[in-house]
Amino acid sequence: MKGNMNNMMKQMQKMQKQMMKAQEELKEKSVEGTAGGGMVTVTANGHKEIIDIVIKEEAVDPDDIEMLQDLVLAATNDALKNVDELVNKDMGQFTKGMNLPGMF
Predict the structure, then answer these.
(1) Which of 46, 54, 57, 84 is deepest in the core (most CB within 10 A)?
(2) What integer is the mean pLDDT of 68-97?
Protein backbone atom coordinates (compact mmCIF):
# COMPACT_ATOMS: atom_id res chain seq x y z
CA MET A 1 0.00 0.00 0.00
CA LYS A 2 2.76 2.42 0.97
CA GLY A 3 4.65 1.66 -2.25
CA ASN A 4 1.59 2.56 -4.33
CA MET A 5 1.23 5.86 -2.46
CA ASN A 6 4.90 6.76 -3.04
CA ASN A 7 4.58 5.83 -6.71
CA MET A 8 1.46 7.96 -7.05
CA MET A 9 3.18 10.93 -5.38
CA LYS A 10 6.13 10.63 -7.80
CA GLN A 11 3.71 10.57 -10.74
CA MET A 12 1.92 13.67 -9.41
CA GLN A 13 5.23 15.53 -8.97
CA LYS A 14 6.29 14.56 -12.49
CA MET A 15 2.96 15.76 -13.89
CA GLN A 16 3.23 19.01 -11.94
CA LYS A 17 6.68 19.69 -13.44
CA GLN A 18 5.35 18.95 -16.93
CA MET A 19 2.41 21.31 -16.35
CA MET A 20 4.70 24.12 -15.19
CA LYS A 21 6.92 23.61 -18.24
CA ALA A 22 3.88 23.65 -20.55
CA GLN A 23 2.62 26.87 -18.91
CA GLU A 24 6.03 28.52 -19.42
CA GLU A 25 6.08 27.40 -23.06
CA LEU A 26 2.70 29.08 -23.60
CA LYS A 27 4.39 32.46 -23.14
CA GLU A 28 6.56 31.71 -26.17
CA LYS A 29 3.59 30.74 -28.36
CA SER A 30 1.40 33.27 -30.09
CA VAL A 31 -1.95 33.42 -31.81
CA GLU A 32 -3.62 36.04 -33.95
CA GLY A 33 -7.07 37.52 -34.00
CA THR A 34 -8.39 39.49 -36.96
CA ALA A 35 -11.30 41.72 -37.83
CA GLY A 36 -12.56 43.47 -40.93
CA GLY A 37 -11.18 40.82 -43.25
CA GLY A 38 -7.65 41.30 -41.95
CA MET A 39 -7.82 45.11 -41.67
CA VAL A 40 -6.83 44.76 -38.01
CA THR A 41 -4.67 41.94 -36.66
CA VAL A 42 -3.93 41.47 -32.97
CA THR A 43 -1.28 39.03 -31.76
CA ALA A 44 -1.34 37.63 -28.22
CA ASN A 45 0.89 35.16 -26.44
CA GLY A 46 -0.29 32.15 -24.46
CA HIS A 47 -0.36 34.21 -21.26
CA LYS A 48 -3.05 36.53 -22.72
CA GLU A 49 -0.61 39.40 -23.25
CA ILE A 50 -1.16 41.47 -26.41
CA ILE A 51 2.22 41.56 -28.13
CA ASP A 52 1.39 43.22 -31.46
CA ILE A 53 -1.36 45.13 -33.25
CA VAL A 54 -1.28 45.76 -37.00
CA ILE A 55 -3.77 48.19 -38.54
CA LYS A 56 -3.89 48.45 -42.31
CA GLU A 57 -3.91 51.99 -43.67
CA GLU A 58 -7.32 51.59 -45.30
CA ALA A 59 -8.86 50.89 -41.87
CA VAL A 60 -7.98 54.40 -40.73
CA ASP A 61 -10.79 56.83 -41.54
CA PRO A 62 -10.58 60.05 -39.48
CA ASP A 63 -14.34 60.49 -39.99
CA ASP A 64 -15.12 57.04 -38.57
CA ILE A 65 -12.91 56.44 -35.54
CA GLU A 66 -15.69 54.34 -34.02
CA MET A 67 -15.35 51.70 -36.76
CA LEU A 68 -11.60 51.44 -36.14
CA GLN A 69 -12.21 51.06 -32.39
CA ASP A 70 -14.76 48.30 -33.09
CA LEU A 71 -12.29 46.51 -35.39
CA VAL A 72 -9.51 46.65 -32.77
CA LEU A 73 -11.90 45.41 -30.09
CA ALA A 74 -13.17 42.56 -32.28
CA ALA A 75 -9.64 41.51 -33.29
CA THR A 76 -8.50 41.60 -29.65
CA ASN A 77 -11.43 39.45 -28.52
CA ASP A 78 -10.73 37.04 -31.39
CA ALA A 79 -7.07 36.77 -30.33
CA LEU A 80 -8.02 36.13 -26.70
CA LYS A 81 -10.52 33.44 -27.78
CA ASN A 82 -7.71 31.83 -29.78
CA VAL A 83 -5.44 31.96 -26.71
CA ASP A 84 -8.10 30.06 -24.75
CA GLU A 85 -8.18 27.41 -27.47
CA LEU A 86 -4.36 27.18 -27.43
CA VAL A 87 -4.29 26.84 -23.63
CA ASN A 88 -7.02 24.18 -23.69
CA LYS A 89 -5.13 22.26 -26.38
CA ASP A 90 -1.76 22.48 -24.61
CA MET A 91 -2.93 22.08 -21.02
CA GLY A 92 -5.87 19.75 -21.72
CA GLN A 93 -3.54 16.77 -21.76
CA PHE A 94 -3.07 17.23 -18.00
CA THR A 95 -6.76 17.41 -17.14
CA LYS A 96 -8.01 14.70 -19.50
CA GLY A 97 -10.30 12.42 -17.56
CA MET A 98 -10.23 14.59 -14.47
CA ASN A 99 -13.21 16.61 -13.36
CA LEU A 100 -11.49 19.82 -12.26
CA PRO A 101 -13.87 22.71 -12.88
CA GLY A 102 -12.19 26.07 -13.25
CA MET A 103 -8.69 24.59 -13.49
CA PHE A 104 -7.82 26.50 -16.67
Answers:
(1) 46
(2) 89
List CB contacts of 87: < 8 A, sequence separation 6 or more: 26, 46, 104
Q: Confidence class of residue 100 from pLDDT cuts 50, 70 and 90? A: low
Using CB atoms within 10 Å of the CB of residue 94, give its burial: 0 to 12 exposed, 13 to 18 middle, 19+ buried.
Answer: middle
Residue 33's closest CA among 70, 78, 73? 78
Q: In the prediction, which pLDDT does 38 show? A: 96
62 alpha-carbon distance from chain centroid: 33
- Rounded CA separation 16/10 (Å): 10
Q: In this structure, which amino acid lies at residue 75?
A: A
